[in-house]
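Page 47, continued from p. 46.
Same chain as before, 237 aa.
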Amino acid sequence: MAIAGRGQPSKKITGKLVALGLSDEFNDRHYAVVDGVDGKLHYAEIGRLSRYDPPSKDVVVTLRDQNANSLHGRSRHPITRMFIESHVPFQELASADGATWLDRKLLSKEPPEFRNKGFGAEANRALRLRQQWLIKEELMTEQNGKLVARRRLLETLQRREVVRIAVNLQKELGLTYQPLASGEPFRGQMKKTVKLASGRFAVVQKGKEFSLVPWKQAMALRKGNGLSMGSGVGISR
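Result:
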């Protein structure tokens, strides 16, 4: 098993989170084990986790090494940051009606290079299944022997998923869904968060209406006092 945090500061490892636990209960330090697209298992010390919204097993994450000395002076603990690439389990991505990590890889200018072993083999199979699903949904076509994605594919998939989830939330919350209007100022109270294939969203209430706000946008609004936080809602990375 490879140990992250002992290589170059810029090194990145993407894969499926297969284990998560405490490495130092007294100091609340956690570890993660990731099955990488390179076909190897990687162990990393990732420090503290959000107690409100910890990551779940089987999601796709990226581990990024950081220079411990430059950030915290002398430290005997290598620092590795973990970024969540997908908030739903990997096995759901091939047929998810949303903008997924697989779609971003398919649209990347640099073709993904996954080793055909371990999670790398799983990811290669999932990419092929995703292509088949996109063709079935008429979101991808074959032209001159090449597969071509529909324009604004990610936006289309995200919009479809958000609208579908919003219908369910209307019944749960007893509120009316109001899509966000681009460029208009927005204020409201954050009620909860939802994890979708397209990413994490904040459910923001304004009067008798609610909107689904992408997490990064919600955090930017909060910093600018465009949103108020509901009780019990935590900020996670």
